Amino acid sequence: MGKQLRIILLIIAVIIVPVLFYGYLQLLSLSDDEQMAEKIYQKQMETVLFSLNQYADDVMSGWARQLGARESSLYENAEELILSNESIQLLAITNINSKKDTLFYSDYINKSQHNSEKMRKWLAKNDSLLNKLSSYMKAGFQKIQPVEWIDEDSLGNNQVGVTFMLFDQDSATLYNALILLEERYWTEGVLGGKMQKIATDNFGLAVLQFNNEAPPQVIYSTGNFNLAKGYVKNNLWILPNMKIAIQSSGENYIDLVRQRSRKNLTFLIITVLIIVIGVIVIIKNIREALRIAELKSDFVANVSHEIRTPLSLIRMYSETLLLGRAPTDEKKKHYYNVIFQESGRLTYLVNNILDFSRIEANRKTYQMGKISLNEVVKDVYEQYSHSFEEKQVQNQLKLNEKEIYISADKQALEEAISNLIDNAIKYNESSIQVIISTYSDTKYAYCEVKDNGIGIPDGEESKIFDKFYRVERSLTQKTKGTGLGLSLVKHIMEAHRGEVRLKNKFGKGCSFILKFPLEVKNDQNINS
């Protein structure tokens, strides 16, 4: 495992870390590009809105100059101004010294005798504002200030207007001018033309009205203005409850940058994922290759140990017989039986290795024929009588009452059953119990080998059929084995159009069930 860890860390250091670092830098770059593009776009849009605000302010300054024009009297100028501008509802001229006001009405506004009284209240309420505007005027600066006028009787609620100071040089008198506007008329009549000139195919302009928490309303627009789509807005200086907004007609620059950023980001993520997945696959393959190499090394050691044991017994008992040291005929018979059993075990081990080699080379063939499942199971059971007796295995054979015929290779079937019995004996801690049984239903024949051994840990049931795989437990490590038995069993069953099933209770034993089709065909060779 130390070697595997070093290789994995090396791959991570050489491939994954630089890729992830590059991806991180690209993400930062994409984010910076998007933010810069958004700032540029915002500035461009705000420049357009600023020009509109400046134009509106210039219009109001023009009205103030028109009122203060010396060619005519202040009141004549006021009459001309309100007649030439449909958006003006009310124009009030107030002498600051005498507090006398003169009101000029639009043709479509009802005159009210209470307006003079309301005007005095408004002047009293905005006394500090008027003083401030007066100080500006004395300093030579005429400031135009947005104001509100509340008149529920004649002009409607929350009227919006502007106020500024005028100085009549002939009479050396300071006047206050209050202009109340009809918002829609003013927007269409004053700003509308300018907005139409500025608007292009790429973007549209609109004036929006905001009232408390209600959704904004489009008062005027140069085209179809979509409130659900992103837009840039600024306060309209002249009308405080209004905002001028600008919106791209199609995909704006920032949207295009975002799309490019998303595409680049998607491509980058996919590339990083592909590289990471590739590295993971490489690491997995390396680990698997190292694991198989380690398993093969263990396999050689285990096979050597497995073969050495029967060879030692055969050599020992054959040497005893050759030297004539067997005291009785009964002992001779016992020694011959041991030699026979161990040579059979040795043949079984060698056959396993040879079969595995043929399977790996895809050269394994089976001689299929009609055989009795009961007879094969009984023969294998009798071959293990010596092992059962030697290891004190409580064994039981339960054969089906009627003969069960299947199409199978007799030698391969014996090999599969032998592997299962071997595992049942080896992987057991004490008081070994093995039950071998055969039975059938209408379509299939079954051979079951049940034990009370250590069982298979949860999650490893499917792995035990992999070649060289052995469960990592203290008992399995102490017990030598090739790790090929169950892999061969699975291959044999697949070649017989059957399957091997597992019933497992971890710590309480398990049952392996060989399932065969009942139908019997003519003898034939099956290549695997």
From TrEMBL:
Which SMART domains does the entry link to?
Answer: HATPase_c, HisKA
Whether Protein biosynthesis counts among this entry's keywords is no
- Mark the transmembrane ranges: 7-25, 265-283
| InterPro entries, per the entry | HATPase_C_sf, HATPase_dom, His_kinase_dom, HisK_dim/P_dom, HisK_dim/P_sf, Sensor_HK_Regulatory, Sig_transdc_His_kin-like_C
Source taxon at top rank: Bacteria
Enzymatic class: transferase
* Protein name listed in UniProt: histidine kinase
